[in-house]
Amino acid sequence: MSHTQLRAHPLGDTAVTITFGADRSAELLRQVHSAARSLKAANIAHVEDIVPAYLALTVFYDPLGTSYEEISRKLLDACDRATHSPPKAAPSREHPMPVRYDGVDLEAVAISTGLSVEEVVARHSGRIYTVDLLGFVPGFAYLSELDTALQLPRRAQPRPRVAAGSVAIAAAQTAVYPLDTPGGWHIIGRTQTVMFDPTRDPPALLAPGNTVRFERVE
């Protein structure tokens, strides 16, 4: 990957977004994650936070310590080196997560997919998911790849409140709501696992590259 593919864009006056491509893929996401880990290891002066996404990563910096031109040049150089080097290994931490499969949408999901409730539960709990990224609200981790038989579009009418701990699915992903928030995903269960705690270090339980294994409990 060269600078003709990497692009830097200002995000306000305290952040730079580095785009890696225009087409979402597992390989591009691996490159973004690897570059994010490389940037963190490089400990570039005045960098305050690094946030990966599907096609890009955003770096927040101290504008009193450096200029946009200087920091974007350093970030482009570092990302270019990272994409030409062997990828840095992702964190290998796996999170087992107990789930009570009694969600309000569980039966509707079974009907929509043509599966029994037991088959929905077995397929959802029968694989290990990868944390793609965190977004939407603090601690909300987008997990892939959901069994194709369970993939449904989001609800036509989002709920004004989804309880923290709700386990849900939408399209090719699954997630756990970390806070009480509005939401349009299909709720199939709930967990007592605390996904986000501002008094914890780090506050979010999951990080990009981690894996999650849902375990059915009664």
Outline the structure in words.
This protein is 23% helix and 30% strand. α1 crosses α2. The strands form 4 sheets. It has a 4-stranded antiparallel beta sheet, with helices on one face. The chain has a 4-stranded mixed beta sheet with strand order 5-13-6-7. The chain has a 3-stranded antiparallel beta sheet with strand order 10-9-12. With 218 residues, it is of the alpha+beta class. The chain contains 4 helices and 13 strands. The longest helix is centred in the N-terminal third of the chain and has 17 residues. The chain is elongated.
Summarize the structure.
The chain is of the alpha+beta class and 218 residues long. It has helices at residues 26-42, 68-83, 106-113, 117-125; strands spanning 7-11, 15-19, 47-52, 56-61, 94-99, 128-134, 141-144, 159-162, 166-170, 173-176, 181-183, 186-190, 211-216. 23% of the residues lie in helices and 30% in strands.
Which structural class best describes the helix and strand composition? alpha+beta
Going across the biggest sheet, name each strand in turn: 1-2-4-3
Determine the oligomeric state from the structure. single chain
Q: Would you list the SSEs in sequence order as H and E?
A: EEHEEHEHHEEEEEEEE
Give me the secondary-structure topology.
Layout: E1 7-11, E2 15-19, H1 26-42, E3 47-52, E4 56-61, H2 68-83, E5 94-99, H3 106-113, H4 117-125, E6 128-134, E7 141-144, E8 159-162, E9 166-170, E10 173-176, E11 181-183, E12 186-190, E13 211-216
Parallel strand pairs: 5-13
Antiparallel strand pairs: 1-2, 2-4, 3-4, 6-7, 6-13, 8-11, 9-10, 9-12
